[in-house]
Design brief:
With 434 residues, this protein is of the alpha/beta class. The chain has helices spanning 2-65, 70-74, 178-181; strands at residues 79-83, 86-95, 98-107, 110-122, 130-132, 136-138, 143-145, 148-150, 158-160, 165-167, 170-172, 182-184, 192-193, 197-199, 219-225, 233-234, 238-245, 250-256, 259-269, 274-279, 282-293, 298-299, 308-312, 316-319, 324-331, 335-338, 343-350, 354-357, 362-377, 382-384, 387-394, 399-401, 426-433. A hairpin with a 2-residue loop joins strand 2 (86-95) and strand 3 (98-107). The protein is elongated.
Length: 434
């Protein structure tokens, strides 16, 4: 009897354990199915978000490169773009003076929406080491560190000399054959591209900034900086016929914490002369006819280049051998000539047709922005910063360095006081919202 009772208890226990395992297995299976559905749902939501984000970024990039197309985009309404197993629907509207890009991404039955604002009036995007409207040539043993682009589709528009290298991608005009547009010297020591070759999605057109009207300022006559006569300082706004810093003499602009505006017909810094900008404010210098820095001179040396803005109306802007200029320059039509071992630390804007950077010159810039000019970098010349020009030529052992996300020379967001025509304004990225 006892054994029979034990056998019955064991049977009940086994049945209970089997039932428990069945319930547990069903629960685990159900949980696994739910987890899988949640994982699929999360993947689809993520995919939809990335579709939406990619669509907004693509449209924003297009408008930054083609600001003149904004009115066409605004009247277009919604546009749908299919990507693989998904799509995004994009719309562009104008609200409170800003451009709003709204993108809804779809992956299957799942969707996500993002919005991005673009702020008008911003400096055009500079994302390449060198961009030319037309031809670009690189001499022997030259280097470009960063991407390169041209609107040209003509054969041999981009030429790389012996042992020259582009450490970045190279983009040619829409519809062009990169293998025909880009020419590298053959053989063991031929030029090389350490990146991809491809096409621009659209031609790029960089607008010219507005060259300002020179202000009417109190007349001050002429000024000569002569150390034998004591310290020479300019602390007030004024209009001068000439400002002449004699050899081995110095001139100080005392800007305080505000903006000092000085207009002058002729400005000359003699050999080994120096110009200092004192204070936390800014100097805006308007030069009508002649600006020349003779050999071994300095202007705002080793100070913040954003403290100086030079506007020049003359025919030739000359920086002689071993002269150093720390500031931003905008010439209306002049040729720019930076001589041997000269340095420009700042920015160069030109509506003219020629920018010449001579042997062993050094240019650290926010930009060399000269859409109408031929920019020439002579033997062992060095540029750190992006170049926008009509044509570009590099001499032996010249080098250009620019990475959009690389190390900055100084505060990269400090843009000079440059304006664009209302029809050609650029855009900068504003806020993202979901």
């Amino acid at each position: 009897m006892y054994l029979k009772n034990q056998q019955g208890s064991v049977l009940v226990l086994v049945l209970v354990m089997m039932l428990s395992l069945t319930v547990l297995g069903t629960a685990l299976l159900s949980s696994s199915i739910i987890d899988k559905k949640q994982a699929v749902r999360q993947d689809r939501n993520n995919e939809a978000f990335y579709f939406a984000r990619s669509g907004a970024e693509a449209v924003a990039h297009y408008l930054q490169q083609n600001p003149d197309k904004i009115q066409d985009i605004l009247i277009q309404g919604e546009d749908e773009v299919n990507i693989g197993n998904g799509k995004f629907i994009i719309s562009v509207t104008e609200e409170d003076g800003k451009i709003k890009v709204e993108s809804r991404g779809h992956s299957g039955d799942f969707s996500e929406k993002v919005s991005l604002s673009l702020i008008p009036g911003a400096f055009p995007e500079l994302d390449m080491a060198v961009f030319c409207e037309g031809a670009m040539s690189m001499g022997t043993q030259t280097r470009i560190y960063g991407d390169v682009g041209t609107n040209s589709v003509a054969n041999n528009s981009v030429t790389l000399g012996t042992q020259s290298k582009i450490n970045g991608d190279v983009y040619v005009g829409p519809g062009g054959d990169p293998d025909q547009v880009i020419k590298t010297d053959g053989g063991w020591f031929g030029g090389a591209i350490n990146g991809n070759k491809g096409n621009l999605p659209e031609e790029r057109h960089y607008p010219m900034p507005v060259f300002p009207e020179f202000p009417d300022l109190p007349y001050k006559g002429s000024l000569t900086a002569n150390n034998r006569m004591g310290t020479t300082t300019i602390s007030e706004n004024g209009y001068y016929d000439t400002i002449n810093v004699l050899n081995q003499c110095s001139l100080t602009f005392n800007v305080g914490s505000g903006t000092l505006r000085v207009r002058v017909k002729d400005f000359v810094v003699g050999s080994q002369g120096s110009v200092t900008v004192r204070g936390s404010g800014k100097l805006i210098l308007y030069v009508e006819d002649n600006f020349e820095m003779c050999s071994q001179t300095s202007f705002n040396w080793n100070s913040d280049p954003n403290k100086v803005m030079l506007y020049y109306k003359g025919e030739l802007l000359k920086f002689s051998a071993q002269s150093d200029f720390y500031g931003c320059i905008y010439v209306e039509r002049a040729k720019i000539d930076l001589s041997t071992q000269g340095d420009i630390i700042g920015s160069i804007f030109s509506s003219g047709t020629e920018v010449k950077l001579s042997t062993q010159s050094t240019t650290y810039v926010r930009a060399i922005y000269a859409p109408n000019a031929t920019v020439t970098l002579a033997t062992q010349g060095e540029v750190r910063g992006p170049i926008v020009c009509r044509e570009f030529a590099m001499g032996t052992q010249g080098s250009v360095y620019f990475r959009k996300d690389g190390e900055e020379v100084w505060d990269w967001n400090a843009i000079p006081d440059i304006e664009f025509d209302s029809g050609d304004v650029g855009f900068k990225i504003g806020d993202w919202t979901n």
